[in-house]
Amino acid sequence: MSEELPSPERCIGLLREQGCSEEVIKHCIAVRDLAVKIAECVGADVKLVEVGSLLHDIGRSRTHGIMHGVEGAKIAKNLGLPERIVDIIENHLGAGIPREEAIKLGLPPKDFIPKTLEEKVVAHADNLIEGNRKTNVEYEIRRQLEKGNRDYAKRLRALHDELSNRCGRDLDEL
């Protein structure tokens, strides 16, 4: 598997070639814009974050359900993309999904938790973009609590605080 990262233009081309809608592509671009700002602030690999965020929803060309991360990882592997990109795509859902929860959701029995700094940045930028507009962490936490997703809301708060602390300011201010 090649470690060379595709250009941003190539990433957009891959999304189109795989059949992603223009709405998904606009969302990926909005996530990229925020993810790059966060990456610069926290000292993450900006190029890796840029490519990972542009491709994070490539699986939406197959499904818009919870499996889009798994499907996207399969697509990325088949395209010969670096494992670091495959991992970003597979682990970008929410603020991570532990194995037990993954099983209940019908996902493969494993943790889908962002581990690297770059995975965390892309996952959280995605949390803060609704469609192609930026929201804020309090809004997202409130939404999850209204849906009864208390554990998810806790993970979301923890991820936001971790990255904000690393950045030296609240990510909602970026």
Count of strand segments = 2
Number of domains: 1
Strand percent estimate: under 5%
- The secondary structure category is mainly alpha
Strand order in space, largest sheet: 1-2
Largest sheet: 2 strands, antiparallel
Shape: globular
Q: Helical residue percent?
A: 55-70%
* Gyration radius, in Å: 15 Å
CATH topology: Hypothetical protein af1432
Terminal-residue CA separation: 35 Å
CATH class descriptor name: Mainly Alpha
SSE string, helix = H, strand = E?
HHHHHHHEEHH
Contiguous runs where pLDDT drops below 50 for at least 5 residues: none
Q: Count of helical segments?
A: 9
Q: Give the CATH architecture.
A: Orthogonal Bundle
CATH superfamily: Hypothetical protein af1432
Mean pLDDT figure: 97
Characterization of this structure:
With 174 residues, the chain is mostly helical. It has one domain: Orthogonal Bundle (Hypothetical protein af1432), CATH 1.10.3210. The protein has helices at residues 8-18, 22-42, 46-55, 68-78, 83-90, 99-104, 117-127, 137-146, 150-167; strands at residues 129-130, 133-134. It has a two-stranded antiparallel sheet. α8 (137-146) packs antiparallel against α9. The longest helix is centred in the N-terminal third of the chain and has 21 residues, at 22-42. It is globular and about 35 Å long. The model has no long low-confidence stretch (mean pLDDT 97).
SSE layout and pairing:
Elements lengths: L7 H11 L3 H21 L3 H10 L12 H11 L4 H8 L8 H6 L12 H11 L1 E2 L2 E2 L2 H10 L3 H18 L7
Antiparallel strand pairs: 1-2
Helix pairs in contact: 1-3, 2-3, 2-7, 3-5, 3-7, 4-5, 7-9, 8-9
